[in-house]
Amino acid sequence: MKDLRRVPFGYAAALLFAVLLFGLHLLDISVGQRLIQEFTAFSMRMVVLVPCIFILIGLLDAWVPQQWIQKHVGEDSGIRGAVYVILLAMFQGGPLYGAFPTAHLLWKKGCSMRNVFMYLGAFSTLKIPMMLFEANFLGWRFTLVRGAASLPVFVLTAAIMAAYARGKGLQMKELAEDQAAGQPGAAADGLHRR
């Protein structure tokens, strides 16, 4: 029999959640019924949205060359790279979990860590669809003040997180390493320690 300590935490948590849902359903507790309804609705949204996200990520991976990413949003891109990733994040829609595959692709293709963190911050706070929705309920003044206040916060946070990662010895792989990806020892995930 397999040692239970070697079962990944995610599997154990999912199993525990399923048992909890089943128990609440059997006991006919109203909170359990509501939880099952919400979980089912969320799962349906995931089933529809996630394949679309991965198709778009695959197209981006195939159509956008690594040299272009490194040139425009890589380590030497400066303010121009920050503007590009913020604009990319602003014109996207969907929930935050939809941003992580894009962030990983940018990272894998040579985007600087600072710009990846900046992309995630902008995606979570400055998406145009979200800002339009917010302005409809809270007004344009509030939306613009909140956007202007959050922009320097995630820019600063991205710089701090990138500096911390570099301090820990994490760095992006170079283009030459990516071209040698078929050879043994190449970093497949885009990150390695010095």
Provide structural commentary.
By secondary structure, the protein is mainly α. 72% of the residues lie in helices and 3% in strands. The protein has 2 domains: 63 residues, no CATH class; 129 residues, no CATH class. Strands 1-2 form a two-stranded antiparallel ribbon. About 4% of the residues have low confidence.
Q: Give the overall silhouette.
A: globular
| Helix and strand sequence | HHHHHHHHEHE
**Count of DSSP H/I helices:** 9
**How much of the residues is beta strand, in percent?**
under 5%
How many strand elements? 2
Total domain units: 2
Strands in their spatial order, largest beta sheet: 1-2
**How is the biggest beta sheet arranged?**
2 strands, antiparallel
The overall average pLDDT, rounded, is 83
Low-confidence stretches: 183-190
Q: Helix share of residues?
A: over 70%
Could you give the distance between the termini?
40 Å
Helix/strand-derived category reads mainly alpha
Which value, in Å, is the CA radius of gyration? 21 Å
